[in-house]
Amino acid sequence: MYPRTRGRRLRESDAIRSLVRETRLSPSELVYPIFVIEGEGEKREISSMPGNYHFSADMLADEISELRDLGINAVLIFGVPGIKDSIGSEAYRDAGVVQRAVRNIKAQHPDMLVITDVCMCQYTDHGHCGLLSENGRVDNDRTLEYLSRIALSHARAGADMVAPSDMMDGRVGHIRDQLDDNEYKHVGIMSYAVKYASAFYGPFRDAAGSAPSFGDRKTYQMDPANTDEALREARADIDEGADIIIVKPALAYLDVVRRVKDSTGAVVAAYNVSGEYAMLKGAVESGILGEDAIMESLISIKRAGADIIITYFAKEIARKLRGK
């Protein structure tokens, strides 16, 4: 007599399959990235990321309402400025594009969790994530002051959480001190602690206009071959005051998501980045893969240990989860 595989008969019922499912995904665990541009009355599809749009700040109300109806309670705001300079001054201007977007969202949807990306690459005329020294290298220590200015301006506009994505050493502690000293102790920090120098960022750089004008970012982003480094980076940011740790990208780094979660016990957000989105979206739209591949990919991220998933698929997944 042969042993029977446990649970095989249970899987014949949809209701029972749902009851015994080990990994679950909810719209409330998703964060939807939004690109905000200058101007008024603007909503334009991003050619490299079909289904995603550039919005002017005044056009966000309907988008946020749709997200709330789908059960998505958090957005990550990226700004695309009209003016760039060597110090990214538009990034910390009180009337900047992100600051206006945050105020508009909070005025109409005060319960929406608004997270803002804190970086300089789309604001600088050279496209790097910090200030440049005379030899053309990114000056880590000088950059910290400007990142803190950006974070503080976002907090003043009403952001609930800031997300430094620059990968400068020490920036989480510098930002935490700046926020605390200005009575914004309640504003959280979601740190891009584990951000790889990945080939999967192309569509985002097109959407944000953030490609470097020379060189690359390998001197301050992580080597894709390294995982022990990820644990060091995550622990350092936690020690400096990060509330949530981001691993970016997600699908090519599921092992890193698991290691960071198991090693630190922190709240981990995995960023399902633009290249992963475009690759899978294109495969589905061309008929190479079925739509279920999208849900399967996000389940794999959750199964790897992510508590939060930042994804351009958020609306599609939420509709599917809600049967819409």
TrEMBL record:
<dbReference type="GO" id="GO:0005829">
    <property type="term" value="C:cytosol"/>
</dbReference>
<dbReference type="Pfam" id="PF00490">
    <property type="entry name" value="ALAD"/>
</dbReference>
<keyword id="KW-0862">Zinc</keyword>
<feature type="active site" description="Schiff-base intermediate with substrate">
    <location>
        <position position="248"/>
    </location>
</feature>
<keyword id="KW-0460">Magnesium</keyword>
<keyword id="KW-0479">Metal-binding</keyword>
<comment type="function">
    <text>Catalyzes an early step in the biosynthesis of tetrapyrroles. Binds two molecules of 5-aminolevulinate per subunit, each at a distinct site, and catalyzes their condensation to form porphobilinogen.</text>
</comment>
<feature type="binding site">
    <location>
        <position position="274"/>
    </location>
    <ligand>
        <name>5-aminolevulinate 2</name>
    </ligand>
</feature>
<feature type="binding site">
    <location>
        <position position="205"/>
    </location>
    <ligand>
        <name>5-aminolevulinate 1</name>
    </ligand>
</feature>
<keyword id="KW-0627">Porphyrin biosynthesis</keyword>
<dbReference type="GO" id="GO:0008270">
    <property type="term" value="F:zinc ion binding"/>
</dbReference>
<comment type="pathway">
    <text>Porphyrin-containing compound metabolism; protoporphyrin-IX biosynthesis; coproporphyrinogen-III from 5-aminolevulinate: step 1/4.</text>
</comment>
<feature type="binding site">
    <location>
        <position position="233"/>
    </location>
    <ligand>
        <name>Mg(2+)</name>
    </ligand>
</feature>
<dbReference type="InterPro" id="IPR013785">
    <property type="entry name" value="Aldolase_TIM"/>
</dbReference>
<dbReference type="GO" id="GO:0006782">
    <property type="term" value="P:protoporphyrinogen IX biosynthetic process"/>
</dbReference>
<keyword id="KW-0456">Lyase</keyword>
<keyword id="KW-0350">Heme biosynthesis</keyword>
<keyword id="KW-0614">Plasmid</keyword>
<feature type="binding site">
    <location>
        <position position="217"/>
    </location>
    <ligand>
        <name>5-aminolevulinate 1</name>
    </ligand>
</feature>
<protein>
    <recommendedName>
        <fullName>Delta-aminolevulinic acid dehydratase</fullName>
        <ecNumber>4.2.1.24</ecNumber>
    </recommendedName>
</protein>
<dbReference type="InterPro" id="IPR001731">
    <property type="entry name" value="ALAD"/>
</dbReference>
<feature type="binding site">
    <location>
        <position position="119"/>
    </location>
    <ligand>
        <name>Zn(2+)</name>
    </ligand>
</feature>
<feature type="binding site">
    <location>
        <position position="129"/>
    </location>
    <ligand>
        <name>Zn(2+)</name>
    </ligand>
</feature>
<comment type="subunit">
    <text>Homooctamer.</text>
</comment>
<dbReference type="GO" id="GO:0004655">
    <property type="term" value="F:porphobilinogen synthase activity"/>
</dbReference>
<feature type="binding site">
    <location>
        <position position="312"/>
    </location>
    <ligand>
        <name>5-aminolevulinate 2</name>
    </ligand>
</feature>
<feature type="binding site">
    <location>
        <position position="121"/>
    </location>
    <ligand>
        <name>Zn(2+)</name>
    </ligand>
</feature>
<dbReference type="InterPro" id="IPR030656">
    <property type="entry name" value="ALAD_AS"/>
</dbReference>
<feature type="active site" description="Schiff-base intermediate with substrate">
    <location>
        <position position="195"/>
    </location>
</feature>
<comment type="similarity">
    <text>Belongs to the ALAD family.</text>
</comment>
